[in-house]
Amino acid sequence: MNLSPKIESFVMHCGEMGSRWGFNRTIGQIMGLLVMSEKPLSANEIGETLSISRGNVSMGIKELQSWRLVSTQHIAGDRKDYYLPAGSIWELANRVFEERSKREVDPTLSLLRDALLDDPANAQEAYAHQRMDEIHQLLETLTKWTAELQSISPEKLTTLMKLGSGVVRILDLKDRIVKTGSAD
Amino acid sequence: MNLSPKIESFVMHCGEMGSRWGFNRTIGQIMGLLVMSEKPLSANEIGETLSISRGNVSMGIKELQSWRLVSTQHIAGDRKDYYLPAGSIWELANRVFEERSKREVDPTLSLLRDALLDDPANAQEAYAHQRMDEIHQLLETLTKWTAELQSISPEKLTTLMKLGSGVVRILDLKDRIVKTGSAD
DNA sequence: CTAAAGTTTCAATAATTTCTGAACGTTTAA
DNA sequence: TTAAACGTTCAGAAATTATTGAAACTTTAG
């Protein structure tokens, strides 16, 4: 497939950013290409367009599927697999977020939980223990929060984001209401 | 310096996670070590404790300083530089967040802004243009939002996070109030 | 000024990650 | 049953990234 220069530069950019986003160059490129493509693409089309080997396309797609970012589509009377993004931009971003949190935060959280189980044995450990506890609390709060945000509908979430720091004013508002009348 | 097994395993974990968090193994270890240490450490102490070369310590510290995660302290009558975390756990997490957003989002945002300037030249570009616009909007909203959250005091932010998806109820509350009485 | 104590830089090397392509597996049309 | 069309795997090669250590640089005490 032939890409217009503007699309090509976007796809290549996705490649360059790939490793920063948690995967590698090829995988970034494949994802960029699929998002920019109106119709699903076969492994062959992907490989030719990006000049990468059959094997690499296969591995890349597999990885993207493990991130739940790509789905497979079949066309009647055609034995090829066709690939397309597994949802809207919004959903994709969400998945990247979830998946990264799983890989970047969960292991640390579980290490910290273990480490905090038994009491510090000396002054050095006491200090470290305290620090680990802070990190643990921070990560817990953050994890819970993002999990809850995921459960909010995109529309509400957009409203919330547009509100920005204005949300503080509303928190104050709530405090006033709670103080002057209704129970919490 | 000699680390107790529990602290050592935490520091090593920071090393393993390092690359997922946006830096490399050594840098993760150095940061972990500094956070766990009650007193500032010299380059020598860091290198010995982690068994890494002088040069590597120097480069690692430099990188951590570029992330604004480590500060230098001097002790009267001592020519060595001593290093310590540049703030509370909370502040550190914030910096990592900001810094990563700068590296992971900003370049894409600027590419998209450029790409969206001129009109699509054909059907393929028209579709891609639309997709880029969606991504652009998403990233803009997200960037603005996180920037605003940064401006909220840690206490308020904690309240907000603890509230979780309960924040939606408050949004509804606000809507009711606005509708029935005061102007926005 | 000189030497000692420290830090930084960077070319060479080591370690790790990614990519290729050939071999193998599977499905289906004939 | 065969062979063509496709997907997958994985050992080795290529590319990239991290690390070392020696040389250069900086600061300061004497």
UniProtKB/TrEMBL annotation, chains A, B:
Keyword Transferase set for record: no
InterPro entries: ArsR-like_HTH (IPR011991), HTH-GbsR_regulator (IPR052362), HTH_MarR-typ (IPR000835), MJ1563 (IPR026282), WH-like_DNA-bd_sf (IPR036388), WH_DNA-bd_sf (IPR036390)
Domain HTH marR-type: 29-80
A GO MF label: DNA binding
SUPFAM superfamilies: Winged helix' DNA-binding domain
Swiss-Prot/TrEMBL keywords: DNA-binding, Transcription, Transcription regulation
Matching Pfam families: MarR_2
Family the entry assigns: Belongs to the GbsR family.
Protein name in the entry: HTH-type transcriptional regulator
Species the sequence originates in: Thalassotalea marina
Classification lineage: Bacteria, Pseudomonadati, Pseudomonadota, Gammaproteobacteria, Alteromonadales
